[in-house]
Amino acid sequence: MGPGHDHQAAASNAAHRHFGRLWAAFALLSILMVVEAATALRTGSLALLSDAGHMFTDVLGIGMALAAVAATRRARTDPQRTFGLYRLEVLAALANAVLLSGVAVYVLVEAVRRFGDPPEVLAGPVLVVAVLGLIANIVAFVLLRPGAQESINLRGAYLEVLGDLLGSLGVIGAAALIALTDWWWADPLVAVAIGLFILPRTWRLGRAALRILVQAAPEHLQVTAVYDRLATVPGVAGVHDLHVWTLTSGMDVASAHLTVTPGADVGGILAAARAALREEFHIEHATLQVEPGAAPGACGAVEW
């Protein structure tokens, strides 16, 4: 087993813990996606088609999360992958954001085109299928909610299901309005509302994934605060080459060079630095290089 796998085993991994919930949500939404798409094509409802397209990205996103979990499990036995394949989760979230943006843009363009001459929509079948979609999204929402705060990939799927749940409510309202009043503009209007709801959340998800991929410091953490805290560790004379980044959801990592005073207790300094990073910044994995102050050129690397 590779040297980094002990850290992986200790790291928070929501996708692994909620694997069964992912599978259940994947199966349920897959079935309803097919039903919604078929009904939308038969009835001519753009709102229902947009909801089916949104549900497709739900299914695809959850499927990628499942694939990432499976790949990560296999990678744990590969000594050449010392950090496993945790970045697959982030790549899946980014792909999910791109696909969802494409669906939203298509729906908006098609809805605008329909405003000039809105087609008739068979409201009865749309209403029935939209209610079924709402029920499926509520169940999936409950299944995914526990892991949404721990994993960027699960958060992406969770946000999509939340948007899809609200979209189903919109489709139900549009179908009911058409059935009662024959106001055909309700269908493209709801489609536009769904598209506008999806886009900002999708962009935020994509931005979060990109921050991880470019190894930017976590948004919730100030690098200067980490620097100042390490500099106050007894025995530390200076801090340089400090880097903080996110490997995957819930796993922030750091590396730094610590210049120590002559005769300092290196073991005690490392223990104190480790405690400060863990307790104050929630950084469980760090690589610290100790440089004796009397001889800056002589250094020893210690990883923990």
From TrEMBL:
Main location: membrane
GO MF terms, alphabetically ordered: zinc ion transmembrane transporter activity
Mode of membrane association: Multi-pass membrane protein
Presence of keyword Transmembrane helix: yes
Transmembrane segments: 22-41, 53-72, 84-109, 121-144, 156-178, 184-203
Superkingdom of the source species: Bacteria
Location of the Cation efflux protein cytoplasmic domain: 219-292
Keywords: Ion transport, Membrane, Transmembrane, Transmembrane helix, Transport
Domain Cation efflux protein transmembrane, first and last residues per copy: 22-214
Locations listed in the record: Membrane
Protein name per the record: Cation transporter
GO cellular component: plasma membrane
Entry similarity comment: Belongs to the cation diffusion facilitator (CDF) transporter (TC 2.A.4) family. SLC30A subfamily.
